[in-house]
Amino acid sequence: MEEFAINLPGSGVSDIERPRLTARERVSAYIELTKPRITFLIVLTSAAGFGLASKRAVDYVGLVSALFGIAMLSSGIATLNQYAERELDGLMRRTATRPLPTRKIAPWEALAFGAGLTILAEVYLLVFVNPLSALLGLTVIAGYLFGYTPLKTRSSLSTIVGAFPGAVPPLIGWTAATGTLSIEAWVLFAILFLWQFPHFLAIAWMYREDYSRAGILMLPVIEPDGRVTAQQIVVYTLMLIPVSLLPTVLACQVESTFSAHLYWDFSFSTAVFARHSPCLVSEPGNYC
């Protein structure tokens, strides 16, 4: 696991001077390691994939079983990600209060907890769901922990790399229901893949000072005027529109979840840049 452990001098994260926690506080710290809100969203998109793949009645027992395995996998990966970025988290204001920077949980405890959850999740998906779903889970582990996470401090291309494992949950949901991948499943993958760019670039713009402080090379950090960031948000959003219509062409009834994502993320992204970037508030005719 040392391959993705990130060490920065002077961050001071260690096992010494750990606060005394009650049993409830300790459980709460472990839950926080799993990033419950992100895990919920991953489970939600996986459920959408499962439901859309179910041509007839939904197998609710199979759905619950698959979502349990996916939630466990997401929780394990989130914990291992925080273990890998424990030094960086201590340098950013928005993450400085997480369990590892505050020493509520020791690094070895987070590593053991995250690895245990991840391994159990993969075994569960393999045994109780199907091998293809477990294989897709492995691609998420490899892409997120060994691709996206270490690349964040080396290149702004980490966003593209991270978008691949980030778009896999609907595929896992689909394969959990059918045991196969079809063109409709890949359309769902494409929708979520493209959606991530306006979403995360807007967030990166808002927290660009934090990312810069930690040495994370997000696009708004290396390009502080926001011009290219704004352009990419618009471009990816425009690309998302025709792709989001493909399920209708393929006669796959897609719930309004994706349309809502498209609308709200474009609105959020535009609002952020309209407030902070001169590229979107320039005078008419002054194109960035």
Task: Please describe the topology of this protein.
Elements: H1 23-33, H2 36-53, H3 60-84, H4 86-89, H5 107-129, H6 131-151, H7 158-166, H8 169-178, H9 183-206, H10 208-214, H11 219-222, H12 227-249, H13 257-276
- Structural class designation: mainly alpha
Order of helices and strands: HHHHHHHHHHHHH
- What's the alpha carbon Rg, rounded to whole Å? 20 Å
Quaternary structure: single chain
Q: What is the CATH third-level topology name of the largest domain?
A: Tetracycline Repressor, domain 2
The structural domain count equals 2
Poorly predicted ranges (pLDDT <50, ≥5 residues)? 1-15, 253-274, 276-288
Tell me the name of the CATH class of the largest domain.
Mainly Alpha
Alpha-carbon distance between the termini? 44 Å
Biggest sheet descriptor? none
The CATH level-2 architecture of the largest domain is identified as Orthogonal Bundle
Query: How many alpha or pi helices?
Result: 13
In which range does the helix fraction lie? Answer: 55-70%
The CATH homologous superfamily of the largest domain corresponds to UbiA prenyltransferase
3D architecture notes:
The chain has 288 residues and is an all-alpha fold. It has two domains: 1-12 and 21-180, Tetracycline Repressor, domain 2; 182-288. The chain is 69% helix and 0% strand. It has helices at residues 23-33, 36-53, 60-84, 86-89, 107-129, 131-151, 158-166, 169-178, 183-206, 208-214, 219-222, 227-249, 257-276. The protein is flat, with a radius of gyration of 20 Å. The model is unreliable at 1-15, 253-274 and 276-288 (pLDDT under 50).
